[in-house]
Amino acid sequence: MEIFDYDNVLLLPRKCRVESRSECNASVELGGRTFRLPVVPANMKTVLDEKICKYLAQHGYFYVMHRFDIDNVQFTKDMQSQGLYASISLGVKPADYATVDKFVEQEICPEYITIDIAHGHADSVKNMIQYLKAKIPDAFVIAGNVATPEAVIDLEAWGADATKVGVGPGKVCITKLKTGFGTGGWQLSALKWCARVATKPIIADGGIRSHGDIAKSIRFGATMVMIGSLFAGHEESPGKTVEVDGELYKEYYGSASDHNKGEYKHVEGKRILEPIKGPLKNTLIEMEQDVQSSISYAGGTKLMDIRKVNYVILGGDNAGEHLLM
Ligand SMILES: NC(=O)C1=CN([C@@H]2O[C@H](COP(=O)(O)OP(=O)(O)OC[C@H]3O[C@@H](n4cnc5c(N)ncnc54)[C@H](OP(=O)(O)O)[C@@H]3O)[C@@H](O)[C@H]2O)C=CC1
Ligand SMILES: Nc1nc2c(ncn2[C@@H]2O[C@H](COP(=O)(O)O)[C@@H](O)[C@H]2O)c(=O)[nH]1
């Protein structure tokens, strides 16, 4: 098996088929809706809040609200009363089952539900998927996080409509250090490995450090990518604003950090500061333009044309050119 990551793979251009990059369509379909970009901000407290979710839904982007200190039923009602789709997160504890029961009692159905736990290849996730499919069958269920083909096969068989791949590659993640497990350092090849067996969409989660990594994820089998750090440092990001030596930063902390948990127990995340880089809408526009450029370098006109390109691995034991025959 080849081991590589975002920083040692490059995609190879094919002959351009467009006169302008504006002809390239960066949109993607997930769960019956088409979104402008194959990118979703991470469902973390310092990445998004209700206001940002509303902005994303109104402007054609996918979002997944986080699951911490929030009333999911009220959130869903608020979004749907404005004619917007609702996309929430759940855990696997009794309180999460109670939330599902509340949805059923009030006859409300969020369009997207993401089951979001650290070790998603677990019976607890199987039980929650099956509960959701029985109680709210119209919701599109994303489940994770996982790291192996076996896990993707199981989650799909248990009824997940999409899986989220990535254990430990995140910027505020310390899972690798604390447990010795994960895809940190080889997330892109783990994605490739998982995508070979997937029959449903994969969301590649964690490790994206630059916009070109979006195209690399698509090339290796992702339908969408989930990104935290690149979204945490905007003017409207919910993290606290911190000034250091006259420069402004936003705090960005892991969902499994003591900052998020409120206690130091099974901590697998840390807190960092991200420099503030202006409004979110500018980043989203720049990302779209960069993905359009990626499609044009792939010799295509639509997102999945990126899947057709060859690539090179730079340095290391697996170095070389990889041609599609
Ligand atoms: N993508 C990634 O690499 C990671 C992401 N995270 C994020 O941090 C947040 C908190 O995650 P999590 O701690 O799972 O959420 P929860 O605290 O809601 O825990 C989920 C449930 O799974 C149980 N569990 C069993 N084994 C494990 C295990 N190895 N890791 C975690 N839980 C386990 C927990 O029990 P008990 O607590 O008693 O063990 C708990 O009942 C989530 O948003 C998650 O996505 C966290 C770590 C890695
Ligand atoms: N191991 C941990 N992973 C975490 C934690 N909180 C969030 N995450 C994961 O990181 C990605 C975002 O990664 P980034 O590289 O884009 O910043 C996020 O979607 C989660 O899957 C945590 O505390 N520990």
From TrEMBL:
<dbReference type="InterPro" id="IPR001093">
    <property type="entry name" value="IMP_DH_GMPRt"/>
</dbReference>
<feature type="binding site">
    <location>
        <begin position="202"/>
        <end position="225"/>
    </location>
    <ligand>
        <name>NADP(+)</name>
    </ligand>
</feature>
<dbReference type="Pfam" id="PF00478">
    <property type="entry name" value="IMPDH"/>
</dbReference>
<comment type="similarity">
    <text>Belongs to the IMPDH/GMPR family. GuaC type 2 subfamily.</text>
</comment>
<dbReference type="InterPro" id="IPR050139">
    <property type="entry name" value="GMP_reductase"/>
</dbReference>
<keyword id="KW-0521">NADP</keyword>
<feature type="active site" description="Thioimidate intermediate">
    <location>
        <position position="173"/>
    </location>
</feature>
<dbReference type="GO" id="GO:0003920">
    <property type="term" value="F:GMP reductase activity"/>
</dbReference>
<feature type="domain" description="IMP dehydrogenase/GMP reductase">
    <location>
        <begin position="5"/>
        <end position="309"/>
    </location>
</feature>
<dbReference type="InterPro" id="IPR015875">
    <property type="entry name" value="IMP_DH/GMP_Rdtase_CS"/>
</dbReference>
<protein>
    <recommendedName>
        <fullName>GMP reductase</fullName>
        <ecNumber>1.7.1.7</ecNumber>
    </recommendedName>
</protein>
<comment type="function">
    <text>Catalyzes the irreversible NADPH-dependent deamination of GMP to IMP. It functions in the conversion of nucleobase, nucleoside and nucleotide derivatives of G to A nucleotides, and in maintaining the intracellular balance of A and G nucleotides.</text>
</comment>
<dbReference type="InterPro" id="IPR005994">
    <property type="entry name" value="GuaC_type_2"/>
</dbReference>
<keyword id="KW-0560">Oxidoreductase</keyword>
